[in-house]
Amino acid sequence: MEAFAQSFQEELARLMRWRRDVRRFRTDPVDEAxxxxxxxxxxxxxxxxxxxxxxVLRVESDAARTAAYENFKTANAQALEGYAGDKAKMYAGLKxxxxxxxxxxxxxxxxxxxxxxxGLGAKSMPEMRRYSVVGAVNLFWLTARAKGLGVGWVSIxxxxxxxQDLNAPEGWSLVAYLCxxxxxxxxxxxxxxxxxxxxxxxxxxxxxx
Length: 209
Hints:
Number of domains: 1
Mean pLDDT: 96
Strand content: 5-15%
Number of strands: 4
CATH architecture: 3-Layer(aba) Sandwich
Shape: globular
Distance between the termini: 29 Å
Structural class: alpha+beta
Helix content: 25-40%
Oligomer: single chain
CATH class: Alpha Beta
Order of helices and strands: HHEHHEHEHEH
């Protein structure tokens, strides 16, 4: 297999370094054609058994957005109760969602009941379908970043409640709630690292067996 040019490899590494979890968005609208180009990246993603189990709900109505945001605020308050001392103070000051500002919000699901792929590779490990969705989200994320958009993954949510509020079909499981838009600022350093919540590892530990 022929390798890509060194210049491409360097740009790819640069793209991955500059991919950040964005929580501070401008409210400028995102062009529909541009958003569709990013969504098309899902179609390039690998999936177990070629099942393509990803499903996307675009959260647009005021009612749906309000329900999702209230869901986050409730879950965030509950999460805060799990911390104490300096960690609690730090957590309380974190901005962990761009849901109030981001112009585009997407709920990404896995269709656990899909017949596509005939169960290949998922009979012994059904979670492989969800891993496939995560891989597709990553391609979407990198594509969006390459085109100047920011993406924020909101994980502080009650998925059962969100499914009800969005009227998600039975058999769909929530994988990601994504906020998408133009970031207020751009940085290649994670915000959590900046404030001292945690440090990024500099080396990958690999054990041998």
